[in-house]
Amino acid sequence: MAASLPQKPGMAGMPSQQQQQPPHLPPGAAPSAGQQPMPPQGALREISPVFLCRIGQETVQDIVTRTMEIFQITRATQLPNGVTQSQATYQDRFGKLQEHLRQLTLLFKKLRLLYERCVEMTSDLKEGPAELVPYAGEELVSVRVEPCSPAVIQERNEVLEKLRQKNQEMKVLMDQMRNLLWDVNAMLTLRK
Q1: Closest to 45 (Cα-Cα) out of 65, 24, 62
Q2: pLDDT tens column, 66-94
Q3: Tens digit of each residue's pLDDT (9 = 90 or more) over 128-169
Q4: Domain locations in the chain as residue ranges
Q5: How far apart are CA 116 and CA 78, in angstroms?
Q6: Per-residue b or e along 5-32, where b marks 16 or more CB atoms closer than 10 Å to that residue's CB
């Protein structure tokens, strides 16, 4: 099956290239044009999740690029408020917008396939993505702490002691500054 590659910015006038989709990618997940060539199927038995994540990162970058191009096209388009422009200009811009939106749909489908394949490949891991990166508003799960060496524990205790001393010094300075400000304010009120 041949898959049409999305054109990179600045290549709008060039015809889209046709490539044979590698057998190791999920269906509908065409490699991007800037991607390095893949090793043959015999050399690589199974694609690693890290490699799929790299392809996903490139796909997200393509999605962001296409979205920025859509915003640039819409910013350059004038509203039809009495100004007459050629119908061909509007049709050209509309065609570009339609093509970008079609490519965005394909890129999101590719990203979804990559995500599902990564989840499928990493289902045997002990910690899932939800445990590694907490969502906003979600309670943090307690983290297992491995026992440290005595040297590390001693260094930590020394740092904590220095921190306590500095905090005490800062407290004394703040109290002195507060008393000084009280005295200055009292003297100013007596002057008046």
Answers
A1: 24
A2: 999 999 988 887 766 666 667 778 888 88
A3: 555 556 666 666 666 666 777 888 889 999 999 999 999 999
A4: 2-124, 159-192
A5: 41
A6: bbbeeeeeeeeeeeeeebebbbeebbbe
